[in-house]
Amino acid sequence: MTMPGVRTLPLRFGLVLAVVLLTAVGLLASGVAVTSALENSLTRRVDTQLEEAAQGWARPLGPPPRELAGEPGPARPPSSFFVRTVAPDGTVLRQVNDGDVTPSLPDAPVTTPTTVGSDDGDQHWRVLSTTGSDGTTTVGLSLAENDDTVQRLVVLQALIGLGVLAAVAVAAYFVVRRSLRPLREVETTAAAIAGGDLHRRVPARDRRTEIGRLSHALNGMLAQIQQAFAATAASEDAARRSEEKMRRFVADASHELRTPLTTIRGFAELYRQGAMPDTDALMSRIEGEASRMGLLVEDLLVLARLDAQRPLDRRPVDLLAVCSDAVHAARATAPDRAISLVVLDGPGTPEVVGDDARLRQVVGNLLGNAVAHTPADADVVVRLGTTADSVFVEVSDTGPGLSEHDAAHVFERFYRADTSRTRASGGSGLGLSIVAALVAAHAGRVSVESMAGEGATFRVELPREGLSGSALEP
User: Fold this and answer.
1) Using 50, 70 and 90 to split pLDDT, how confident is the model at 162?
2) Cystine design at 275: which of 17, 185, 270, 288 (Cβ 3.0–4.6 Å)?
3) Contact 313, 305 (CB under 8 A)
4) According to the model, what pLDDT value does residue 252 have?
5) What stretches pass through the bilayer (predicted)?
């Protein structure tokens, strides 16, 4: 269980503390081992001296020499040994001790080196007894020098250890701070991303390092998050645009349908009131408005089917026949207009795989749009050509053309270049939007090039996929 203070400790301080603690444990273990080894070595040296004395000069082989007793002098130099000889009857025959402290000897002789205390102090002694025919001699050596040496070693190790720990702490702090610098960069990047900057990335580093693998993993995650946000934003934008288009579509459709209905209702009211005696003219007007409303409903149904992505009746279609029939129909409708068909040289035959009826509607709408929205003296030309992988149809006119704004919105539903919604030229504003939808359903492209006062050119390009090899040969 971790303490709250430890959990709130910054990582760099935690790592430095861990290094210092591990170093302290290592120094402590090393100090204990060295001190124990030195203490044991000094003790063994004292034991060796005691054993040599017990087996040599301290062994009782006769009456003790008189000159060994008493204070040190010319006849007996000072000695660090404590010597006591006891007769078999317990009489102390000899005792030599040049120090101020006397060891506390056990009652029974000790045959192995043993540590004992003192009678009048806390000093320790190492003693050993040897027994002969004339009694028992006990020799001892003070451990004061050994203890003092060990204590000085402990103090020295403590001072050196503190210095080493301070140096390790400072070095570890700078090393950890430098090592954690990439993590601070990750923290800064994460804060920037949290603030909304999804384009920020963690600096890439060597994948062989932990920070490198972390940075690559984070950058991959950030890329996915950015893509998800972008996809969500795009989906929301698309939903808003779709909703706006739907609202505009419903409003325009309601307006377009309301106008003929209002006209029909008005003529019916006039007929009921007897205000129009010419019944044929009245019925003709009602029939015209009903027909126009029927055409509008049919166009709306076509767009609804295309929006629902209903499958088309796909089969090889000869666009030369489609364009030729459209030109003949336009000439029959407007015999006084100059309408021509031009077939351009190109590889293969102008055939595509698609819905014949819908492709005829595409060319018919483009041609009808050119005839309806250009003056009577304007020329209309239909061009048919091929490329290596597509077939294109161009419908050009020499009319007034389109402005840049009109050209950008001409394929939108219910869009008219004349904002007053006049119907002098006819049409519901759905013809070109149907063209765009039908071409898109055939995986093609439709575009317009126009300048005000210089006419307009509508170009439809359809892929030649799915055709046999013979249709692609020049």
Assistant:
1) very high
2) 270
3) no
4) 64
5) 154-176
